[in-house]
Amino acid sequence: MGAVAAGVTLGPQVGEAAGAARSDGAAALGAAARDDDYDGSALWLRYVPIADPQLLGRYRRQISTVLVENADRNRCHRHTQDLRMAPGSAERLMDSTLQAAREELVRGLSGLLDRRIPAQDGPGHAVPDGAVVLGTRESSQVVRRLVPAGELARVGEDGFLIRSVSQGRRAFTVIAGNTDVGALYGAFAFLRRLQTHRPITGLSLAESPRIANRHLNYWDTERLYAGNNASGTGGLNGENGALFNFAATGESAARNLPVILDRYLVAARALASVGITGITINNVNADNAYLTPEYIEQEAALADALRPYGIRLALSIRYAAPTDQRFAPDTLTDEQMAPVDPAFQEWWSRKARQIQEAIPDFVGFTVKANSEGQPGPQDFGYDHGDGANGMATAVAPLGLRIYWRTFVYNADVDRDRLKRAYLEFGPIDDEPQPDGTRGRFLDNVFLQTKNGPLDYQAREPIHPMFGRMENTNQALELQITQEYTGQNRMLCFLAPMWEEVLKTDTYATDGDGRLLERRLVGHIVDGTAQHHADTAIVGVANLGNADNLTGHHFSQANLYAFGRQAWDWTLDSADIAEDWVRMTWGNGRGLVSALVAMMMGSWEALVSYQTPLGVAHQFRSSDHYGPAPSEVLAREDWSPVYYNQADATGLGFDRSPTGSDLTAQYFPTLAARYGDIDSVPEELLMWFHHVPWDRPMPSGRIFWDELVHRYYAGVRYVGEMRRTWDSLESQVDARRFAEVKAKLALHEADAADWRDTCVSYWQQFSGREIRATD
Ligand code: BDP
């Protein structure tokens, strides 16, 4: 696939991907499934009864019991002696991963089949007909008997096998992993088959993730669009709107960690269902409170609750934390803050050890340094390589990692903000080392890089660092929380954007200038392009304390899709959308196709009415939601006018060789393609060129008319989404229907505001007529 999808298609494009093997219930919603008060709080794990009577009958004949041997043998570590749920909770704490898998199967199958499916812990004489057996070769004699070690070994640590087995007149299913977590992932994959009405017999499935570390970053205090508060981002009753309560006050004070809330476990189950392995629980603009002993105790309780689901904790830290007086007497002076200073390294190693004592599987630290006012090694005369390595050296003996973010844009480096990160990090990656190798970053450092060179815009070219940092571990950072893509008001399914990113060809070459065989961004991230053994992908998550956990019901889809793509970036985003719709809204044929089509066009529509044809960052600085193309801020590189460069000749930022020459940071094929206004993909036109108002475009329109057309087409699509949604009223439960309907009305009004504000502002420069076309 090329750099961007061809053209915008704004009409409904129905992804009728339901294969013949899939049974689509004609009835949209079974009576049992209809709960008009349902608030969305189960995410995609709602497990309502199968509405299609024939399919239900079939599944019931095929499944009788859940069989998990020795579920309690590998008890998970627990630091908090009296770990407990808040009074009145519905979820239950798990002691082990196999127990979590067993409980999920029982809950899921009982819900889907609308009858109690019991669990048993031993096969007796023979595995019962209809059993769903789950385990590892270590935990289960059935698995040991039926799944050869060599075959299982091939799926690796997190992978699983699902097999249908027939023995005489008995037929049953075996779900096997090499680890308990692998088996848990298999349980969710099996449940997904029922949730999406796929066959569950004749199975011989093997799955394993392409990327080893699949993490969320959670920003507890910023860009929270899922806070349970009518005004949008805050909380209620003393909570701050974040998913996890550390310091809630008033009515909610008794609900602070170490007390565990239902929503933590719902989130944990949902994240495990898509294979998420870690979560950095606090904002990258980090508050040192998270490193205090009181907070560490709370974090340990959270880690205890999430551990059975295979989810490990990490923390964002502030580089200068050692100077914070709240750690007195264990503090350092500014003079000791050089990353090579033993005092600095020892401080971090002490702190990490303290955390590790409470959280033995602690992942490590995420660091935002010398970025947007955060302190960093440059304040003390050192570069990012020194800073990352100083911390990495301190924690390496503990087996911890440093995720060092590359979101830096020091204005002294270059006038073009987009060039700055590579200019700072690239030379460190290239640097010859005393041992004859290249690249100074240590092995336990990941450079964590946003998908594009600017900042989570709805569409960006890929970050030039992908493929360029062959000697360094790189993690891709995507933003799930919709800061620039509609926040909690606009319906925008982001998987197609991430798919575009992951499948973009970097045209990376080897040392001799030969094109690599595998060189899509996904190959760089999964390590196969340049032979990296350690791999990571990170999503800045959109969870909060809202009833539906993500603010907008359709934002749940973004969290779901991130997990699925982190597991397997080669997946098709329409297939992911279809699974999510079936699991979240129902399996009715018309419903599925209408919602998938609506979602699949929603991102391209947003790009069209916000920032079409590659014009970037036209957001109001106050909240990054609405349009403000005329805004001029104290910092040039925060100002919409800097990004649009509007004048009488045209619109867009010249980053070609005649301009800032950002294009030179890409590999030669992309550099040439982006650098030439005749070959740059239309969708990235204004990222790289200042485009004359009368330039002829592929559509036959001139640039100005095409620009106006995009804005109008984008808003029209939102109108179509509203009509589609209205047409589904009889097929959707009442509360969720009304909530989405209300959001879509706001969405359309806000999209029209984007169109009108931008078009009329551009018109002051183009001096041309606004001709809205169909
Ligand atoms: C920007 C956000 C800001 C983050 C920053 C980052 O507006 O809240 O702190 O990214 O990623 O997009 O560090």
Output the number of helix runs. Answer: 20
Estimate the helix proportion, in percent.
25-40%
Let me know the largest β-sheet: 8 strands, parallel, barrel
Classified by CATH, the class of the largest domain is Alpha Beta
Per CATH, the architecture of the largest domain is Alpha-Beta Barrel
Mean pLDDT: 94
Terminal Cα span: 29 Å
The CATH topology of the largest domain corresponds to TIM Barrel
Question: What is the gist of this entry?
Answer:
This protein is of the alpha/beta class and 774 residues long.
Structure description:
- Keywords: Carbohydrate metabolism, Glycosidase, Hydrolase, Polysaccharide degradation, Xylan degradation.
- The structure is a single chain.
- With 774 residues, the protein is α/β, with parallel strands linked by helices.
- It folds into three domains: 1-29 and 586-653 and 690-774, Alpha-glucuronidase, C-terminal domain (Alpha-d-glucuronidase, C-terminal Domain), CATH 3.90.1330.10; 41-207, Chitobiase/beta-hexosaminidase domain 2-like (Chitobiase, domain 2), CATH 3.30.379.10; 213-579, TIM Barrel.
- It is 33% helix and 10% strand.
- The chain has helices spanning 53-62, 97-113, 141-146, 149-153, 180-195, 262-273, 293-306, 342-358, 384-395, 420-430, 495-502, 521-525, 556-567, 573-584, 589-610, 640-644, 668-675, 685-688, 703-727, 734-766; strands at 65-67, 119-120, 131-135, 160-167, 170-177, 204-207, 213-217, 278-280, 312-317, 364-367, 401-405, 445-450, 473-479, 536-540, 650-651, 691-692.
- The strands form three sheets. It has an eight-stranded parallel barrel.
- Helix 9 links the parallel strand 10 (364-367) and strand 11 (401-405).
- Helix 2 runs parallel beside helix 5 (180-195).
- It starts with 52 loop residues before the first helix and ends in an 8-residue tail after the last helix.
- Mean pLDDT is 94; it is low at 1-20 and 24-32.
- It binds beta-D-glucopyranuronic acid.
- The site of beta-D-glucopyranuronic acid has 10 residues, from loops.
